[in-house]
Amino acid sequence: MTTPDTLTPPPVPPARDAARPAGRPARRRRGRRRTWRQALRKDWQLYSLAVAPLVFFLVFRYLPMAGNVIAFRRFSPGGSLFGETWVGLRYIRLFLADPTFWEVFTNTLVLGTLTLLFCFPLPIVLALLLNEVRARRLRRFVQSVSYLPHFLSIVIVAAMVMQLTSMDGTVNQIVRGLGGEAVPFLQRPEWFRTIYVSSEVWQTVGWGTILYLAALTTIDENLYEAARIDGANRWRQTWHVTLPGIRPTMVTLLILNIGTFMAVGFEKILLLYNPLTYPTADVISTYLYRMGFESSNFSYAAAIGLFEAVIGLTLVLTANAISKRTVGTSLW
Prior knowledge:
- By secondary structure, this protein is mainly α.
- 64% of the residues lie in helices and 1% in strands.
């Protein structure tokens, strides 16, 4: 007869974690994914905020693309919205053989290159200088003064430029004070590019600095501390820590600027230029304006606009691919 002390205990089932091989994490049951209808019902307030931007881009950006068909059709005002007859590449051959088009195309490349050359790196330089300023009030004052021109209307900026560079303006008063003769700057083709790029720098550099200052705040302070321990001065800290830290922002903005390379400031040029400065001031956008609205040659203008858009798209894709391969940062 067996006593209670000699009874064999019932077998205990092995624990799941004990039976699992070492090093293999426990599997978690994934929750059931929500459908788009469930997400829309739950967060409809957030999705409603995107309705207005989507409608804007749909109406003013995507629907007008259908009008590019008149680049291949003969369009007459008052006739069919998408042109009367199919003419194929006729208008493309016309502007490719037009010497005036290549003149404005060259002006666009020169102004776009100068704008990119000055307006892209200067915000980076200003942001780095402001980041070194320890007086908080002085830094805020300089930053506020530098980005306020961004909020001025293009018309006001153009009027200010005209007043400053007129025969009795501030610039000519300084020239006369130095013993020189007054110069009609806005009537001289050789001065237009300098005036345009200078006004563009004054208006846009401060605003671009905001993005880089925001990117500078994301850099880990421990990296600067490690650089100081290694004996790096302020210049080497900027070169090896600061610039690599804001490189993704720099690359993104560079790609976006290259995308608008061909679309040089239409409004400002239209307000500042005149027939005397056409040799250096007339760009593709202003040439399109004259061809479309002044000459009523809409099909010809549409063909040139389509050509400009294709070049812009090619530049963006090329810059994004090069950046992705060389730097490792891209828009997509």
